Protein backbone atom coordinates (compact mmCIF):
# COMPACT_ATOMS: atom_id res chain seq x y z
CA UNK A 1 0.00 0.00 0.00
CA UNK A 2 1.37 3.43 -0.97
CA UNK A 3 1.82 6.23 1.56
CA UNK A 4 -1.20 8.19 0.29
CA UNK A 5 -3.45 5.12 0.33
CA UNK A 6 -2.24 4.20 3.81
CA UNK A 7 -3.01 7.69 5.12
CA UNK A 8 -6.48 7.54 3.57
CA UNK A 9 -7.12 4.17 5.24
CA UNK A 10 -5.95 5.52 8.61
CA UNK A 11 -8.24 8.57 8.29
CA UNK A 12 -11.19 6.34 7.40
CA UNK A 13 -10.59 4.23 10.50
CA UNK A 14 -10.01 7.28 12.69
CA UNK A 15 -13.43 8.78 11.94
CA UNK A 16 -15.34 5.52 11.50
CA UNK A 17 -17.67 6.41 14.37
CA UNK A 18 -18.82 9.66 12.74
CA UNK A 19 -22.04 9.26 10.79
CA UNK A 20 -23.51 9.84 8.28
CA UNK A 21 -20.88 9.81 5.54
CA UNK A 22 -21.27 13.54 4.84
CA UNK A 23 -20.55 14.39 8.48
CA UNK A 24 -17.50 12.13 8.40
CA UNK A 25 -16.20 13.82 5.23
CA UNK A 26 -16.60 17.21 6.86
CA UNK A 27 -14.66 16.15 9.97
CA UNK A 28 -11.84 14.77 7.84
CA UNK A 29 -11.78 17.93 5.72
CA UNK A 30 -11.78 20.14 8.82
CA UNK A 31 -8.80 18.31 10.28
CA UNK A 32 -6.92 18.75 7.02
CA UNK A 33 -7.78 22.45 6.82
CA UNK A 34 -7.08 23.21 10.49
CA UNK A 35 -3.78 21.33 10.29
CA UNK A 36 -2.70 23.22 7.18
CA UNK A 37 -4.05 26.73 7.82
CA UNK A 38 -4.81 26.83 11.53
CA UNK A 39 -8.28 27.07 13.06
CA UNK A 40 -8.70 30.85 12.87
CA UNK A 41 -7.51 31.15 9.25
CA UNK A 42 -9.85 28.38 8.08
CA UNK A 43 -13.35 29.26 6.87
CA UNK A 44 -16.39 27.03 6.64
CA UNK A 45 -16.17 27.52 2.88
CA UNK A 46 -12.65 26.03 2.95
CA UNK A 47 -13.90 22.98 4.85
CA UNK A 48 -16.95 22.44 2.67
CA UNK A 49 -14.87 22.76 -0.49
CA UNK A 50 -12.38 20.14 0.69
CA UNK A 51 -15.30 17.82 1.47
CA UNK A 52 -16.78 18.37 -1.98
CA UNK A 53 -19.86 20.03 -0.52
CA UNK A 54 -21.51 23.44 -0.52
CA UNK A 55 -21.15 25.72 2.53
CA UNK A 56 -24.90 25.39 3.08
CA UNK A 57 -24.58 21.60 3.26
CA UNK A 58 -22.04 21.92 6.08
CA UNK A 59 -24.58 23.61 8.36
CA UNK A 60 -26.92 20.63 8.08
CA UNK A 61 -24.42 18.62 10.13
CA UNK A 62 -22.49 21.24 12.13
CA UNK A 63 -23.91 24.58 13.23
CA UNK A 64 -20.53 26.28 13.51
CA UNK A 65 -16.85 25.81 12.76
CA UNK A 66 -16.26 25.55 16.51
CA UNK A 67 -18.65 22.61 16.70
CA UNK A 68 -16.48 20.78 14.19
CA UNK A 69 -13.39 21.46 16.28
CA UNK A 70 -15.23 20.24 19.38
CA UNK A 71 -16.21 17.00 17.61
CA UNK A 72 -12.63 16.42 16.46
CA UNK A 73 -11.23 17.25 19.90
CA UNK A 74 -13.65 14.93 21.66
CA UNK A 75 -12.83 11.94 19.46
CA UNK A 76 -9.10 12.55 19.69
CA UNK A 77 -8.99 13.02 23.45
CA UNK A 78 -11.25 10.03 24.08
CA UNK A 79 -8.84 7.92 22.03
CA UNK A 80 -5.90 9.22 24.06
CA UNK A 81 -7.76 8.37 27.28
CA UNK A 82 -8.46 4.82 26.05
CA UNK A 83 -4.80 4.33 25.17
CA UNK A 84 -3.67 5.44 28.61
CA UNK A 85 -6.43 3.52 30.37
CA UNK A 86 -5.52 0.26 28.66
CA UNK A 87 -1.91 0.62 29.78
CA UNK A 88 -2.80 1.68 33.32
CA UNK A 89 -5.17 -1.25 33.84
CA UNK A 90 -2.96 -3.91 32.24
CA UNK A 91 -1.27 -6.66 34.20
CA UNK A 92 2.44 -6.32 34.82
CA UNK A 93 4.96 -4.13 36.56
CA UNK A 94 4.94 -0.35 36.50
CA UNK A 95 7.89 -0.50 34.11
CA UNK A 96 5.95 -2.67 31.67
CA UNK A 97 2.86 -0.48 31.92
CA UNK A 98 4.80 2.75 31.45
CA UNK A 99 6.61 1.32 28.44
CA UNK A 100 3.31 0.32 26.87
CA UNK A 101 1.64 3.64 27.69
CA UNK A 102 4.40 5.75 26.18
CA UNK A 103 4.91 3.49 23.17
CA UNK A 104 1.23 3.56 22.18
CA UNK A 105 0.67 7.22 23.10
CA UNK A 106 3.68 8.49 21.13
CA UNK A 107 2.90 6.17 18.22
CA UNK A 108 -0.68 7.50 18.03
CA UNK A 109 0.60 11.08 17.92
CA UNK A 110 2.84 10.08 15.00
CA UNK A 111 0.27 7.99 13.10
CA UNK A 112 -2.38 10.70 13.42
CA UNK A 113 -0.06 13.68 13.61
CA UNK A 114 -2.40 16.12 11.83
CA UNK A 115 -5.35 15.29 14.06
CA UNK A 116 -3.13 15.29 17.15
CA UNK A 117 -1.68 18.67 16.23
CA UNK A 118 -5.17 20.13 15.86
CA UNK A 119 -6.54 18.75 19.12
CA UNK A 120 -3.42 19.64 21.12
CA UNK A 121 -2.75 23.13 19.80
CA UNK A 122 -6.18 24.57 18.95
CA UNK A 123 -7.80 24.05 22.36
CA UNK A 124 -8.13 27.76 23.09
CA UNK A 125 -10.51 28.13 20.14
CA UNK A 126 -13.15 25.99 21.87
CA UNK A 127 -16.08 27.63 23.63
CA UNK A 128 -15.74 27.80 27.44
CA UNK A 129 -18.24 24.96 27.88
CA UNK A 130 -16.54 22.70 25.34
CA UNK A 131 -13.09 23.60 26.65
CA UNK A 132 -14.11 22.54 30.15
CA UNK A 133 -15.30 19.16 28.87
CA UNK A 134 -12.15 18.48 26.83
CA UNK A 135 -9.92 19.67 29.67
CA UNK A 136 -11.61 17.06 31.88
CA UNK A 137 -10.61 14.31 29.44
CA UNK A 138 -7.04 15.62 29.47
CA UNK A 139 -6.94 15.58 33.27
CA UNK A 140 -8.21 11.99 33.30
CA UNK A 141 -5.42 10.96 30.92
CA UNK A 142 -2.93 12.80 33.12
CA UNK A 143 -4.17 11.00 36.25
CA UNK A 144 -3.79 7.57 34.66
CA UNK A 145 -0.20 8.21 33.62
CA UNK A 146 0.58 9.79 36.97
CA UNK A 147 -0.68 6.67 38.75
CA UNK A 148 1.61 4.41 36.71
CA UNK A 149 4.60 6.58 37.58
CA UNK A 150 3.53 6.77 41.23
CA UNK A 151 3.24 2.97 41.34
CA UNK A 152 6.78 2.69 40.02
CA UNK A 153 8.08 5.21 42.52
CA UNK A 154 6.33 3.42 45.40
CA UNK A 155 7.68 0.02 44.37
CA UNK A 156 11.22 1.30 43.91
CA UNK A 157 11.19 0.61 40.17
CA UNK A 158 11.50 4.32 39.35
CA UNK A 159 13.55 7.17 40.75
CA UNK A 160 10.91 9.88 40.48
CA UNK A 161 10.88 12.29 43.41
CA UNK A 162 8.51 14.68 41.63
CA UNK A 163 5.76 12.50 40.17
CA UNK A 164 3.52 15.35 38.92
CA UNK A 165 6.47 17.06 37.24
CA UNK A 166 7.64 13.80 35.70
CA UNK A 167 4.13 13.10 34.42
CA UNK A 168 4.00 16.51 32.76
CA UNK A 169 7.39 15.95 31.15
CA UNK A 170 6.39 12.56 29.74
CA UNK A 171 3.09 13.86 28.36
CA UNK A 172 4.80 16.88 26.81
CA UNK A 173 7.38 14.66 25.16
CA UNK A 174 4.73 12.45 23.57
CA UNK A 175 2.39 15.27 22.54
CA UNK A 176 5.23 17.14 20.82
CA UNK A 177 5.57 14.27 18.34
CA UNK A 178 2.56 15.71 16.50
CA UNK A 179 4.42 18.97 15.93
CA UNK A 180 7.46 17.55 14.16
CA UNK A 181 6.47 14.13 12.79
CA UNK A 182 6.28 13.72 9.02
CA UNK A 183 5.07 10.65 7.15
CA UNK A 184 7.94 11.27 4.73
CA UNK A 185 10.52 11.44 7.52
CA UNK A 186 13.14 8.85 8.48
CA UNK A 187 11.19 7.19 11.31
CA UNK A 188 7.96 5.21 11.27
CA UNK A 189 5.32 5.67 14.01
CA UNK A 190 6.34 2.30 15.48
CA UNK A 191 9.96 3.40 15.64
CA UNK A 192 9.00 6.67 17.32
CA UNK A 193 6.92 4.80 19.90
CA UNK A 194 9.76 2.38 20.69
CA UNK A 195 12.31 5.18 20.94
CA UNK A 196 10.18 7.30 23.24
CA UNK A 197 9.33 4.36 25.48
CA UNK A 198 13.05 3.69 25.92
CA UNK A 199 13.82 7.37 26.56
CA UNK A 200 11.09 7.70 29.20
CA UNK A 201 12.17 4.57 31.07
CA UNK A 202 15.67 6.04 31.25
CA UNK A 203 14.19 9.35 32.33
CA UNK A 204 12.51 7.76 35.34
CA UNK A 205 15.52 5.60 36.13
CA UNK A 206 13.66 2.34 35.63
CA UNK A 207 15.41 -0.56 37.34
TrEMBL record:
Residue ranges of the annotated DNA-binding region, renumbered to this chain: 43-62
Domain HTH tetR-type, chain residue ranges per copy: 20-80
Keywords: DNA-binding
Superkingdom field: Bacteria
Protein name according to UniProt: TetR/AcrR family transcriptional regulator
Organism: Streptomyces endophytica
